[in-house]
Amino acid sequence: MGFPVAQDWRTALAAMPEGALALFSPARGPLAARRVARALMEEAAVLGGGQVLALPGGDLLLGAQAAPGHRAGRVIAGLTGRVPEAWILPAGRRLAEARCRDTTSPEPVPGLAELEARCAPMAVPDFARLTLFAEGAGHRPVAQRLGPAPLGLPDPQLESLAREWLCRRLLAALADPAQRGLLPALRPGLRLVLDLPRGGLPAGAPLRGAAPDDPNRPIALLPLSSRADPARFAAIESELRAAGWAVGLVAAEARALDWVEAPGLAWAVPVGDASPRHRPELLIALGRAVPGWCRVPGILHEGIAS
Amino acid sequence: MSLATADLAWDGSAPMRDAMALATVARECVTSGVERRVLYLRLALLPARLREPRHLRMVREALAPVLRPTRARLYELPGGDLAVLSPPPGEHLEEVRRTLSRLMPEIAAETLLPTLRLPAEAARLLTLVEAALGLDGTSAPAPEPASGSPPPSGAEMDAALRALATSNLASFLRRQTIWRLASGDEQAQAVWTELRPHVADVAAALLPGRSLAGSPGYARRFRHAAERRMLADLARPQEARALGEACLPLGLGAVTEAEFLRLDAVLGPQGRGHLVVCVAAEELLADPAGFALVHDLSQRRGWRLGLDEMEPALLPLLPAHRLALPMLRLRFRPELLSGDGAARTAWDAALPADRSRVVLLGADTPVAIAWAWQRGITHFTGRVLEARL
Lengths: 306, 389
Hints:
The complex is a heterodimer of chains A (306) and B (389). With 306 residues, chain A is an alpha/beta fold. Chain A contains ten helices and twelve strands. The longest helix of chain A has 20 residues, at 156-175. With 389 residues, chain B is α/β, with parallel strands linked by helices. Chain B folds into two domains: 3-132, Alpha-Beta Plaits (2-Layer Sandwich), CATH 3.30.70; 154-388, EAL domain (TIM Barrel). An eight-stranded mixed β-barrel of chain B has the order 5-6-7-8-9-10-11-12, surrounded by four helices. Chain B has a four-stranded antiparallel sheet with strand order 2-3-1-4, with helices on both faces. The relative contact order of chain B is 0.10. The interface between A and B is large, with 38 and 35 residues.
């Protein structure tokens, strides 16, 4: 561009007047949340006099007035669930500098071809993961979920593509006696929760469930996106039920429980402190931190005594 | 084609005139709330052996006693269908119906000799009239994109996306009006201007000889890139000031892109109050976490968020009492009229109680408008309204 302004962020930080604010939002989590945070910080920079600097590890807002920056920080925390760190200058200068310097830059977001290239050579033990669940107030495992471990990609579209590929490979491994040993060993006596791709079980898969009235029959988890085609979903659901499976949905957002009508289906969602308004018959609460409202009958959670 | 444009095919024949007159009566009953009864004889569907002149004479003779002493009127429709219109209670219509089913026991009176109540069943009557005019199903087959052309390679796709980022999309921008037309209104009023890039045309220009139809992942990325380009133009201050009451149908990804966030900032609190962003229901199901972020963002920032491209089949899945949004854009589909009673009840129950939030997309036939009016829906996009003005 016209003027090569190569201002070092340390110089900018040092030059801030007394009472100014430094607000740092690390480049973590979904890209969408990062971009929203950046836009709010830029607005605060306009309102409060200052600038937003893009550092390798995140965005740094330097605001001559602290109030707009604090407000932006609160809005960012409310929207994304991540509270940006804030320091009043010059007292917090040293801490701010250390924080900005030590945050490593995130991995670049892969393209479609790169993602395929990353997933293809992964061996079954690399991605297959077994999680144990207790029910209600208990700490003893009663259920086990077999599915692909999330890759932690910042783009939900890529993550769901990868889940789809890995689920298919996992199913193939489960159906093939030669590969079955590569999967984590299933514990006998625990109810099985199995992640399935959008299309459900492949035709002719020898994966039988249990009797339709068995309360411990295995649960097939389909991604919420599979409901976008109601006719196809109904066909997959009845096929699974006929084969002796209970059917559930897996989603990356607990509020989907409130929004989407899903009679007779179990749900697997990451849970937070707030309980959803609508409780399904069976909720599979994902996440190591188990909030108190999850310790009731009808909710499977990861709070296993080790 | 629709009844509104049917006069292009006007041949001056009596059956055509009668068909138009009957359609007008049906619409007027909806507008004014006047009650009428109709006995509709779907003679065009009878097998040939029951359509010989002697059969038709028999039908006429059975109808004659109704027509003479009462105020009933007979409409002769193209294709041989007959309709008898009478003020309520219309017991004599029932008598004729019984006589006819006695005379021709072979036919199913329920489907071939329906009695309809206007204005409640105006939509059904208009469907029958359209069928008689040979208009039904003509708009169904969508022009299939050249299925022979292969999908683009990754490199071609990358090149196209790069070209898209710097190209001028002005000629590919489609503006469509969302109209408000309540029953009894003289004229439709424009309420919002909907802006979207015409993705199929952009793709044809940038990826000649390639088809995105076979690869939804690529198609979504391409649409996303086209929307970003449009938003970059709209976010220029002079463009943003002129935006007015706008409705932007966007992908979930595009709403959290820098271009949209810049538009959001440039509009200011007042401009944001006039903006509606609509996200397809399918995208909510594909990325609920992204939708939650956008939902909260809309409430913080003061623009309105709606659900776009709601199909009737998805309606019971995302009922308005579960997810209350300021706008719901429902796509009109023939099954809204033809679906069984349980499905229709489920659809009605899933609509927001405040019907002013509903926009009916693809209101291309008067039947669609009649269906909407019966439910208090008064916002439309579609060819019927575009053609009238």
